[in-house]
Amino acid sequence: MAVEPGDIEGRIAALVRPVVDDFGFELVEIVFRRENHGWILRLVIFSPTGVTLDDCARVSREAGYLLEVEDLVPGRYRLEVSSPGLDRPLRNAADFRRYPGHAVRLVLIDAPEPVVGRIGEVDEQRVVIELDDRSMEVPYALIVKAHLVIEF
Known about the structure:
This protein is α+β, with helices and mostly antiparallel strands. It contains three helices and eight strands, in the order αββαβαβββββ. The strands form two sheets. It has a five-stranded antiparallel sheet. A three-stranded mixed sheet has the order 1-2-3. β5 (115-122) and β6 form a beta hairpin.
């Protein structure tokens, strides 16, 4: 049977989200794809207070057990649980709301250069980016990529 990533990620989310929630984390991304050494199932979890290696191991054990019992993923795969990282991608309004005032880098449709500014007001249709000399309203539909900028 061929493995189709898009067909399975929703079922995996429905199965593992309660486990992630019980540990006090948010499931922010599921990636199921073929990489150099076979299939990878990556669960990305978030907490405003941070995610430790022990947290990832606990979620991995519980989610791995459920996935094995339910047998949702055909064939062999490697399960990885991680945090989004300091320069995490931002994909939707909820992601932008978590980081008010943080520096962000946006790649926009038809923009020759990335936009770098600070996250301002956020709603369901757009985010306001505070630039040095002005504010810029950016509809999510125009964002190709958005990442937090690591500041030291």
